[in-house]
Amino acid sequence: MKRITYLICFMVSALSLKAQQRPQYTQYIFNNYLLNPALSGIENYTDVKMGFRKQWAGIENAPKTSFITANWKLGDDYLWKNALSLAEPNEDPMSRNYMQNYTASPPHHGLGLVAVYDQQGPISRLDVGLTYAYHLKLAGALNLSLGVSAGMSRVGLDVDALTFEDTFQIDPAVKDIRSQLKPDLGIGFWLYGARFFAGASMQQVIPQKLSFTSDANYNLGKEVPHFFITAGYKLFLDDEINLVPSIMVKKVSPTPLSIDMNLKMSIKDRFWVGGSYRRDDSFSAMAGVNISKLLNLTYAYDFTTSDLNKVSNGSHEIVLGLQLNNVYEVFSGQKMW
């Protein structure tokens, strides 16, 4: 009996100690707010994203992630041709001319909320938090935003999803397995201008121990900080097509450093396609369309390059975006890059 209990607790502790505890995303380049609270209020409308990711399709009990995010600026101030303004009539806000006349956003506050539900077999995690950011005006075309997120995380194990021989069903230690509710804190900064962005963030700032049973011998789990550093730059091929190469470095101790290299191509500010390479893990293909000034839709497929490709059919990720209270009728989200 105790051997089975030990295996359960070891499985949970191993997940806590050795693996990335937060969900993995491919389309964060379309919604960096998921990883960095400093993007709260960066647009001139309420930016809502709803997404679903099915990782390693074909593998039973593989991770599945659902999320919803929303963030918005406070106040009505905006300056001509800046991060919060509308382009002039008949002018593409992604055009060279718009970028050349771009001015920094006025100082302002941003708020937001994030809810993420991640499930891996019998183990589930729910993260809910509020975010705040303040956007500083550093120079004529440069802004720096500082952000913080605060909320709660619930990590649980569904004992009913585990199967044992009948004799093990009465094991008191197994019945004692319980969910964990922990405070959560994140911080970040975001430096941005007309054609570039750079930022860094940290999730799970507060170290937390995970105690799934009353037996201290098995309570080895803990939450560890997640670090993200990212940067990108916009290049114009012509007046209707631009490229945005970007990179993200992620560190979750004690796993190896993760490096993503991305390339996004936008066409007429209406369609975009892209690709991503995650070292020793996957290649990804992405595409999206701005359906209207209210609605956009994006999709990504990951081709697994690790040994999991022998049993996995890859990963799917779809995101629906809404641009609410879009009084200036901005057509494209994240129009700065």
Structure description:
- The protein has one domain: monomeric porin ompg (Porin).
- Helices cover 8% and strands 48% of the residues.
- The radius of gyration is 22 Å and the shape is globular.
- By secondary structure, it is mostly beta strands.
- The protein is built from three helices and 17 strands.
- 36% of the residues are buried.
- Residues 1-18 have low confidence and may be disordered.
- The N and C termini lie far apart (57 Å).
- The strands form two sheets. The chain has a 14-stranded antiparallel beta barrel. A two-stranded antiparallel ribbon has the order 8-9.
Strand order of the largest sheet: 1-2-3-4-5-6-7-10-12-13-14-15-16-17
Spatial shape: globular
At CATH level 3, the topology is: Porin
Strand content bin: over 45%
**Helix proportion:** under 10%
Largest sheet: 14 strands, antiparallel, barrel
The ordered H/E elements are HEEHEEEHEEEEEEEEEEEE
CATH superfamily: monomeric porin ompg
Work out the radius of gyration. 22 Å
Mean pLDDT: 80
Number of domains as seen in the coordinates? 1
